[in-house]
Amino acid sequence: MVSIDISEIDLQWIQVLSEGWAPPLKGFMREREYLQCLNFGLLVDEGVQNHTIPIVLAITDEDKKRLNGETKVALKYQDNFVAILEYIEIYEHRKEERVAAVFKTTTTGHPYIKMIAQMGDWLLGGDLHVIDRIQWNDGLDCYRLTPKEIQQRLKQMKADAVFAFQLRNPIHNGHALLMQDTRRQLLANGYCNPVLLLHPLGGWTKSDDVPLNVRISQHKAVLDEGVLDPKTTLMAIFPSPMTYAGPREVQWHAKARQVAGANFYIVGRDPAGLPHPDIPGEDLYEPTHGTKVLQMAPGLNDIEIIPFRVAAYNKQLKRMTFYDPNNHSDFEFISGTKMRNFAKQGQTPP
């Protein structure tokens, strides 16, 4: 059988697909699924299902020639066979069209667009069969729970509501306030045991984001110190790479949590966004659009969106509270970027 080498990010997408995070996909997208995703943000062959981020496997001209006449191919990562792709289909990787549709920009200053520009000129789709469960052997595999495993854990915890929070930064007190307040609201609305799915993204992130092992250590400390209640929190790692595609990507994040059993999803400011690569001081995506898009996105009917409430450090009370614009001078805003800078400079945040 012909084999092709894959990248670390390809392997992360294989984990996403093989564990069932992206139904109804059974493997890397064929052209029909790809065109639906690109042009509709939906998959429509098995009912209308939200799917806004292409999950595709790029290959080179040389790979395409070697696959001529083949119906299946072995996928190899660092000399180890990890999966087989069957009933394969090869189609053109129109990169500019892809990035314009998904990212709403074509600037190669964007880190994921830059990677796409360096990928092969063909896309390979087919049905995926993994040889063994994907393991990274980094001491964190115990947190990499599949959607079915998460659902089973939630059942064991007797959760009657599940609220998910996705993050790619350390938890700061503003995040904690949002999560604590969400649980308070759910209890006030009649739920008896709402459980937090604390679900940090575990795939590729850009180079200046905090590494996964550091984030998990910090999240564990937050639980150990009781900032979040470990008895009503399930921490697991979401295996997806980060694409920084703004409102389109935040729909993917919400869909995956819906698949895992969440029925409430906390969405923050500028979810899945980043600073504009070409315009200093500007965001690439309007910070409120992620929330607005999620609240009207098709195919996410089983999950309720909990909009971001602005939390800031109250200098008078010396703790995080929700921002009151009538007392603006009392507040200091602590963003994820500011937290990363505190860490880089060895400073203790307020």
Automatic annotation (TrEMBL):
<dbReference type="InterPro" id="IPR014729">
    <property type="entry name" value="Rossmann-like_a/b/a_fold"/>
</dbReference>
<dbReference type="GO" id="GO:0004020">
    <property type="term" value="F:adenylylsulfate kinase activity"/>
</dbReference>
<protein>
    <recommendedName>
        <fullName>Sulfate adenylyltransferase</fullName>
    </recommendedName>
</protein>
<dbReference type="InterPro" id="IPR024951">
    <property type="entry name" value="Sulfurylase_cat_dom"/>
</dbReference>
<keyword id="KW-0547">Nucleotide-binding</keyword>
<feature type="domain" description="ATP-sulfurylase PUA-like">
    <location>
        <begin position="2"/>
        <end position="133"/>
    </location>
</feature>
<dbReference type="InterPro" id="IPR002650">
    <property type="entry name" value="Sulphate_adenylyltransferase"/>
</dbReference>
<dbReference type="InterPro" id="IPR025980">
    <property type="entry name" value="ATP-Sase_PUA-like_dom"/>
</dbReference>
<comment type="pathway">
    <text>Sulfur metabolism; sulfate assimilation.</text>
</comment>
<dbReference type="GO" id="GO:0050428">
    <property type="term" value="P:3'-phosphoadenosine 5'-phosphosulfate biosynthetic process"/>
</dbReference>
<keyword id="KW-0934">Plastid</keyword>
<feature type="domain" description="Sulphate adenylyltransferase catalytic">
    <location>
        <begin position="143"/>
        <end position="350"/>
    </location>
</feature>
<keyword id="KW-0808">Transferase</keyword>
<keyword id="KW-0809">Transit peptide</keyword>
<keyword id="KW-0150">Chloroplast</keyword>
<dbReference type="InterPro" id="IPR015947">
    <property type="entry name" value="PUA-like_sf"/>
</dbReference>
<comment type="similarity">
    <text>Belongs to the sulfate adenylyltransferase family.</text>
</comment>
<dbReference type="Pfam" id="PF14306">
    <property type="entry name" value="PUA_2"/>
</dbReference>
<dbReference type="GO" id="GO:0004781">
    <property type="term" value="F:sulfate adenylyltransferase (ATP) activity"/>
</dbReference>
<keyword id="KW-0548">Nucleotidyltransferase</keyword>
<dbReference type="Pfam" id="PF01747">
    <property type="entry name" value="ATP-sulfurylase"/>
</dbReference>
<dbReference type="GO" id="GO:0000103">
    <property type="term" value="P:sulfate assimilation"/>
</dbReference>
<comment type="pathway">
    <text>Sulfur metabolism; hydrogen sulfide biosynthesis; sulfite from sulfate: step 1/3.</text>
</comment>
<dbReference type="GO" id="GO:0005524">
    <property type="term" value="F:ATP binding"/>
</dbReference>
<comment type="similarity">
    <text>In the C-terminal section; belongs to the sulfate adenylyltransferase family.</text>
</comment>
<keyword id="KW-0067">ATP-binding</keyword>
